[in-house]
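Quick one: structure for this chain?
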Amino acid sequence: MLKNDSILTTTIATAGTDTVAVHSAKPQTPYEVLRLLPKDATPAQQDSAIQEWFEPKEIHYSSRPDTLHLPGHEIPRDLKEVSLPHYYRENFFSNNTMYHPELSIERVGESGDPIPYTFQNDSFITGILIVCFLLITFVLSRISGFLLRQTKHIFSPQKSEQTLTETGSEIKFQFLFIFITCLLYALLYFIYTTHFIANTFIFSSEYILLVIYGITILAYMLIRMLLYTIVNSIFSTNKKNLQFQRSILLITSLEGVALFPLVLLVAYFQFSLQNAIIYTATIVILAKILTFYKSFTIFFYQKGGFLQIILYFCALEMIPLMMLWSGLLVITENLKINI
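Got it. Here's what it folds into:
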């Protein structure tokens, strides 16, 4: 007896009470095999019946050229040729690395043009300016009245001598103003350097250069005050020396207040660097004129020594300033990378 998924090669025909075995001819197609099966044959039985009648054989394609093609048409493509046409292999995204999933993730994408550096996008510079703004606001809230009184009396030698001396907190706040002024000068020179001299340096971070500028300018301020103290203590009284030191602190504090808006304009409002240089030079020249005036009124007003004040001012003010500028240029030249 055969299994359920197989069929007999013969069919049984019943007529009345007589049973007759009828041998059918061999099917030529799978369709004929399926017609021999009952209508309720399962797919497994249909597959078994087809495998019973037909055995799969390897297809052998002819290697001889096909000459039976329509006139005016090219020879048909060989069936064994599986290469894709050029218009399938080349398209708009062929050179895009995202179009090829076989590439590793490290190779995906291409480097584009870097975003140009601007101070308004620099979080470190922004943090410094915020700190300077808070310090200036805090100091002005404490000694604004004192600074206004000293500013009013700066052109009056008699009233300047009668003013009260500063308290300890006022002196500390004025020294804090000197630190802010040095920091603002360092920022301005750093901007000048990156735009006109070089923008690549031997340091991994350009902020180290900014710190060096700030330390250099602060050292210049302290050395200048020390020289004034030594020279004035030798050739003048201690009272006039203290009066002149108060004037120097006041002038330096006013420099910081005047420079802070300029730094904001350059960093965030695309202020012209040429105009910024003119503005800074004007502030420096005015500060030197006020220093010259206070030196003359305090030490040389009654003596009338015009030549002495010129030598005094050039030795203690102009020469240290030129040395500072030369030192900053030498530092920049030694630290920049020549391309």
